[in-house]
Amino acid sequence: MSKSGARYEVDRLVLVPDDIDLSRSPLAGAIDAETYVLGAFNPGLTRLANGNLLMMVRVAEALRTPVRGGHVHAIRWCEGGYCLDAWPLELTETADPRKFMLRAGGWKIMALTSLSWLLPVEMSPDGLQIVTFHYDRAIAPQRNYQCYGVEDARISRVGDRYLMTTCSVSPERHSTTLYSSANGLDWTLEGIVLDHQNKDMLIFEGTIAGKYWAQTRPLGDLYFAYPPDSEWRAGPSINLASSPDALHWKPCETPGIRPHAGTVATARIGGGAPPILTKGGWLTLWHGVEPKEIVGIYRTYWSLLDRDDPSITLRTDHRPLIEPSPVLTRPIEDQMYLRDVVFTTGIVDHEQIYVVASGEADLACRVTHIPKTLFD
Question: Which CATH architecture does the domain made up of 10-375 adopt?
Answer without folding.
Answer: 5 Propeller (2.115)
